[in-house]
Amino acid sequence: xxxxxxxxxxxxxxxxxxxxxxxxxxxxxxxxxxxxxxxxxxxxxxxxxxxxxxxxxxxxxxxxxxxxxxxxxxxxxxxxxxxxxxxxxxxxxxxxxxxxxxxxxxxxxxxxxxxxxxxxxxxxxxxxxxxxxxxxxxxxxxxxxxxxxxxxxxxxxxxxxxxxxxxxxxxxxxxxxxx
Length: 179
Ligand code: IMP
Ligand code: MG
What we know:
Blueprint: E1 6-11, H1 13-30, E2 37-42, H2 46-53, E3 61-68, E4 81-84, E5 94-102, H3 106-116, E6 122-130, E7 143-147, E8 153-154, E9 170-173, H4 175-178
Parallel strand pairs: 2-3, 2-5, 5-6, 6-7
Antiparallel strand pairs: 1-9, 3-4, 8-9
Helix pairs in contact: 1-2
The structure holds inosinic acid and magnesium ion (MG).
C-alpha cells in the first residue's frame, strides 16, 4: 500500500483546497482585464493546475510543456531537457508558469530563459510548494502555496519514481523508500 510509505501528512486535501483557492483569487485580482496563458509544467503540476484553473474567473488559456531533469532520483541533475514543447505561440501573451515545486531552481531557471526568448508580454511563476533552503539558481515565484523545509514530498501530482501522484494529500516520503 502507498500509505505505508508516507511518514506523515504535510497538507491535507482540505488545506490544499483552501490554499489553492486563495492563490486563484490573488491571480484573478492581479490579472484583472487580462487573458493569461497558464503553462503547466508536466507532469508534477497537473493536479494543481486542474484545481487552480477552476478558481480562475479570467478568460485564460492553458498549454503544457514537459521537461526532464530527474531520472529516478530525488535530486535535480542540473541537466534540463524539453521533452514536450508548448503547442501555442506565447509572443505578446501574459504567461503564468504553473509548477508543482521549486527546489534547486535548475528546471525553472532554464525554462524561464527559454520562454523569455519567445517575447511574452509578461511572465510570472506560480509554484504550489517552495523549498527555499535548496536553491542553487536565483529563481523565485510570484505566487507560492506553501514554503516547506527540505523534505522529499509526494502526492497531489508529485511523484517519486512516477509513483504516489494519485495521493489526494501531500505527504513526506519515508527516507527508507529511496535510501
Ligand atoms: P529543481 O530543478 O531542482 O527546482 O526541481 C524541480 C522539480 O523537481 C519539480 O518540478 C519536481 O518535479 C521535482 N521535485 C523537487 N523536489 C521534489 C519533491 O520533494 N517531491 C517530488 N518532486 C520533487
Ligand atoms: Mg515537476
